[in-house]
Write a structure and sequence with these properties.
CATH superfamily of one domain in chain A: CO dehydrogenase flavoprotein, C-terminal domain
Strand order of the largest sheet of chain B: 2-1-5-3-4
Largest interface: A-B, 25 and 31 residues
CATH class of one domain in chain A: Alpha Beta
Order of helices and strands of chain B: EEHEEEHHHH
Structural class of chain B: alpha+beta
Structural class of chain A: alpha+beta
Bound molecules: flavin-adenine dinucleotide, FE2/S2 (inorganic) cluster
Largest sheet of chain B: 5 strands, mixed
Low-confidence stretches of chain B: none
Number of helices of chain A: 11
CATH superfamily of the largest domain in chain B: Beta-grasp domain
Strand order of the largest sheet of chain A: 4-5-10-6-7
Mean pLDDT of chain A: 96
Helix content of chain B: 25-40%
Strand content of chain A: 15-25%
Radius of gyration of chain B: 16 Å
Helix content of chain A: 25-40%
Largest sheet of chain A: 5 strands, antiparallel
Oligomer: heterodimer
Mean pLDDT of chain B: 97
CATH topology of the largest domain in chain B: Ubiquitin-like (UB roll)
Distance between the termini of chain B: 54 Å
Chain lengths: ~290, ~160
C-alpha cells in the first residue's frame, strides 16, 4: 500500500487545475513511474499528499499536427505512443529514439513525456532532444494557459518552473524547427535497457549543400539541467562537417557544460563523452535518413 | 478512501470497492487471490509483477489498482486455457528449458505474450529488447530468448 493521502482523477484540464490550485497538498501523478518509486522510498515530496491523476483527461494523450504543420504532443502521451507514432517517426525521429531508449517496455507503456519533463531530472531522455527542437511547453492554471520555451523550464536538479496549481498540458514543436533538419539522439549508458544515461546527446542539423546551415546540440547529465552547447553551435555554422571540424566542435562543447562526478561516472569520463558523442551523433544524423 | 471500480480480470467482471492506495499487484494477489503474479523489487525494475492491461504489459507493482477501472487485466492465470492447457508460449518455456526457480516466469510469459502480439516476427535483438524489463536470476536468458524465438517460428509456420 502506498502512503499518500488521497487519489482523485480529473476528467478535464479545468477540473485538474481547480483541484491543484485549491489544495496546497495536491500533487500531479501521471504514469507514476517516478512518483510511485519516490513513494516506495517514503520521499516527503509525495508521502501524505493528495494525488491528482491526469491520464484519463480526454485529449491529453496523443500527437497531432495542425494545418501549419506545427506538432503538438499531449503531456500524458506515453513513450510507447511516441515511439510508434507515425508523425514522430517522420518528423521528429530523434524524439522517437529517445522515447524508445527509456526503461523497458513496461515503463514505456506507462511513463509519459510530461512526467519526464516535470520530474526535472537532467537525465530525462526526452528533455535534451526537445531542446534541439526549440520546443515550447503549454502550461495551464486556473487563470488560463501560457507557453514557455523548453530551455527555460528546468532550473536545477529536480526543479522546474511549475508552480502549485499549474499543469503541463502539451509540448509544441513548430514546423520551422523540424522541417529540413536531421536529428539523432545518443544515450550513453552501461546497459542498453533499464538504465539511466551516463550522458545523453541530441543533435539537430540542417545542411546547405555540404555546409552546416544550422546545428543544435543538447546534452543530458552534462550539468544540473539539460542544456544546449551554444558556443559549439555558433562555431559550426557555415562550416563543412569534416572530421577535423567535428573534433574541434566536440571540444568547444565543454565551454557550455558543467559535468560532475557521480557514482555512475567520473567527471573526466563525462567530459570525454561530451567531446565524442556530438561527433558521432552528427555523423549519424547526416548519414541516416533523418527528418523530412 | 475506497473507490468503486469495475475491472475485468482474466475475462471475469469484478465490481470492487478498493482502497485507492492499493497497487494493482496487491489487488490481484491479496484481494483476488491471483498469486501467480509475483512481487520482486516493487519499483519497476524486475518485471516479476507484469500483467496485461488492455493488452499492454505494465508492472503492476507501480500501477494503482484504481487505474484498472473500466479496463481488462490479464494475469498469468489468464494465459492458459480454462481447462489448464498451456499457451504456446508457456509450452515453449517448458520445452526450451527456460525455467529454473520459476519466479520470473509469469512476468516473462506476460512480456513475451505482449511482444509477439505487437511483433509477430521479431529478430533475436527485438526479443531481447521486448524482454528487457524483466530480470531472471537463474537462467542466463539464452533459453528464454530461444523459447520466444521458437514460438515465433512455429506460429509463422516454420
Ligand atoms: C525502472 C525505471 C526505469 C526508468 N528509466 C528511465 C530512463 O531510461 N530514462 C528516463 O528519462 N527516465 C527513466 N525513468 C523515470 C521515469 O519513467 C520517467 O521520468 C517518466 O517520464 C515519468 O513519467 P510519469 O508519467 O510516470 O511521471 P509521474 O511519476 O507520474 O510524475 C513525475 C513528476 O512529474 C510531475 N508531473 C507529471 N505529469 C505532470 C504534468 N502533466 N504537469 C505537471 N506535473 C506533472 C509529477 O508531479 C512528478 O513530480 C525510469 C523509471 C523507472 C521506474
Ligand atoms: S515487482 Fe514490479 S517490477 Fe519488480
Ligand atoms: S528462473 Fe529463477 S529468476 Fe528466472
Amino acid at each position: 500500500m502506498y502512503d499518500f493521502n488521497s487519489y482523485t482523477e480529473a476528467h478535464s484540464i479545468d477540473e485538474a487545475v481547480r483541484a491543484l490550485g485549491g489544495n496546497p497538498n495536491a500533487r500531479v501523478i501521471a504514469g507514476g513511474t517516478d512518483v510511485l518509486i519516490k513513494l516506495r522510498s517514503r520521499d516527503e515530496a509525495f508521502v501524505g499528499r493528495d494525488l491528482e491523476g491526469i491520464t484519463r483527461i480526454p485529449g491529453l494523450a496523443g500527437v497531432s499536427v495542425d494545418t501549419q504543420g506545427d506538432i503538438t504532443i499531449g503531456a500524458a502521451t506515453s513513450f510507447s505512443q511516441i515511439e510508434n507514432d507515425e508523425t514522430i517517426t517522420r518528423c521528429l525521429a530523434s524524439l522517437g529514439t529517445a522515447a524508445g531508449s527509456i526503461g523497458g517496455p513496461q515503463i514505456r507503456n506507462v511513463g509519459t513525456i510530461g512526467g519526464n519533463l516535470a520530474n526535472g531530472a537532467t537525465s530525462a531522455d526526452t528533455a535534451a532532444v526537445l531542446l534541439t527542437y526549440n520546443a515550447s511547453l503549454v502550461i495551464h492554471d486556473s487563470s488560463g494557459s501560457h507557453e514557455m520555451p523548453a530551455c527555460e523550464f528546468h532550473t536545477g536538479p529536480g526543479k522546474v518552473r511549475l508552480e502549485q496549481g499549474q499543469l503541463l498540458t502539451a509540448v509544441k514543436i513548430a514546423r520551422a524547427d523540424y522541417e529540413g533538419y536531421r536529428g539523432s539522439y545518443i544515450k550513453f549508458a552501461v546497459r542498453q535497457a533499464m538504465d539511466i544515461a551516463t550522458l545523453g546527446c541530441a543533435v539537430l542539423v540542417k545542411m546547405d549543400g555540404n555546409v552546416i546551415e544550422d546545428l543544435r546540440i543538447a546534452f543530458g547529465v552534462a550539468g544540473p539541467t539539460p542544456l544546449r552547447a551554444a558556443a559549439a553551435e555558433r562555431f559550426a555554422k557555415g562550416k563543412v562537417p569534416s572530421g577535423k571540424i567535428l573534433e574541434q566542435l566536440g571540444r568547444i562543447c565543454l565551454e557550455d557544460t558543467k559535468a560532475r562526478d557521480s557514482w555512475r561516472a567520473a567527471k573526466a569520463f563525462r567530459e570525454q563523452l561530451i567531446t565524442v558523442l556530438p561527433q558521432r551523433a552528427i555523423s549519424q544524423a547526416l548519414g541516416g535518413d533523418g527528418n523530412a | 478512501m475506497r473507490k468503486a471500480i469495475n475491472v475485468e480480470v482474466n475475462g471475469k467482471a469484478h465490481e470492487m470497492f478498493v482502497d485507492e492506495r492499493l497497487s494493482l499487484l496487491e489487488l490481484l494477489r491479496d484481494e483476488l487471490q491471483l498469486t501467480g503474479t509475483k512481487q520482486g523489487c516493487g519499483v519497476g525494475e524486475c518485471g516479476a509483477c507484469a500483467v496485461l492491461v488492455d493488452g499492454k504489459a505494465v508492472d503492476s507493482c507501480i500501477y494503482l489498482a484504481v487505474w484498472a477501472d473500466s479496463r481488462k487485466v490479464t494475469t498469468i492465470e489468464g494465459i492458459a486455457a480454462t481447462d489448464g492447457t498451456l499457451s504456446d508460449i508457456q509450452e515453449s518455456f517448458v520445452e526450451s528449458g527456460a525455467i529454473q526457480c520459476g519466479f520470473c516466469t509469469p512476468g516473462l510469459v506476460i512480456a513475451a505474450t505482449a511482444l509477439l502480439d505487437q511483433q509477430p516476427e521479431p529478430s533475436r535483438a527485438q526479443i531481447r529488447r521486448g524482454l528487457s524489463g524483466n530480470l531472471c536470476r537463474c537462467t542466463g536468458y539464452s533459453k528464454i530468448i530461444d523459447a520466444v524465438e521458437n514460438v515465433a517460428k512455429t506460429r509463422n509456420g516454420g
